[in-house]
Write a structure and sequence with these properties.
The chain is of the alpha+beta class. It is 22% helix and 34% strand. It folds into two domains: 1-24 and 223-249; 37-221, no CATH class. It has three helices and 15 strands. The strands form four sheets. Strands 7-6-5-2-14-13-10 form a seven-stranded antiparallel sheet. A four-stranded antiparallel sheet has the order 4-3-8-9, with no helix packed on it. Helix 1 (2-21) packs antiparallel against helix 3 (224-248). The protein is globular and about 45 Å long.
Length: 249
């Protein structure tokens, strides 16, 4: 009876996890081809990155800061910016509440390649703050898990998000985990290990060269490898418990 209860509990846990996994914030990738992503590929080459714009796409859409505690900060730099007809707002939004947003680059200012911003997570103060070299840009209520957004230049009420589901299933961003290259960015020349690149599409052509940012001190949520190992572990435990139950009966 005890073994049966354990087996039922494990199977129930596995089913719960499987149901939750179906709703995880992952996008289906890759999309596009060498032709459509040619300009994005060139942006990577220009800074010395070996990323392949097609093959190295990640399905990650939601992130969290890698640090813990008050004052955890993430650095972000614009490495490519092809839109020169109008300023564009770019920032982060709370996963599960797209109305709670933090602006990282101000739509009232013209953004170009080379600009830098920092956003700081302060759990003790219940805030997230963003800064550039001129001082504070924006502040919002604290949240830990976030995606990235931009506002479409032609319509200031039309937002694009890193989660395809928030764009009616249309891909508006591509995300890439760095490959540990020595790259040249606004921060200088350094190794980009543990960094992420976010490429945004601001039109209908899906070439994803409208904005390209490099970001450090963030990680995907949840991490794909962790999900896989946890799922396999639960399946193994459930199978083991069931086998012992058969033997005792």
């Amino acid at each position: 009876m005890k073994t049966s209860r354990i087996t039922i509990l494990l199977v129930a846990s596995l089913l719960f996890f499987a149901g939750s996994a179906m709703a995880l914030p992952f996008n289906t990738r890759p999309i596009g081809d060498e032709t459509s992503l040619n300009d994005l590929q060139q942006a990577f080459k220009d800074i010395g990155s070996s990323l392949d714009a097609v093959a190295d796409q990640s399905g990650a859409a939601i992130f969290a800061p890698t640090g813990a505690g008050a004052g955890t900060a993430a650095y972000i730099a614009s490495i490519s910016w092809s839109i020169d007809t109008a300023p564009v707002e770019f920032g982060i939004y709370e996963h599960g509440n797209i109305d709670n947003r933090l602006m990282l680059f101000d739509a009232d200012k013209t953004l170009s390649s080379g600009q830098i911003a920092t956003f700081e997570f302060n759990a003790s103060a219940n805030t997230i703050d963003s800064y550039d070299k001129g001082g504070m840009i924006d502040q919002t209520t604290y949240f830990k898990n976030f995606g990235f957004y931009t506002v479409v230049p032609s319509n200031s009420s039309d937002y694009f998000f890193t989660e395809d589901d928030q764009n009616n299933g249309v891909a508006r961003f591509l995300t890439y985990e760095s490959k540990g290259d020595d790259v040249k960015t606004p921060k200088g020349t350094y190794n980009d290990e543990y960094h992420w690149y976010i490429a945004g599409d601001l039109g209908a052509d899906q070439d994803f060269d409208g904005v390209v940012f490099q970001i450090e001190s963030i990680r995907p949520v949840p991490e794909p490898a962790t999900i896989f190992l946890f799922g396999v572990g639960l399946m193994g435990l459930a199978a083991y418990g069931r086998k012992k139950g058969f033997r005792r009966s």
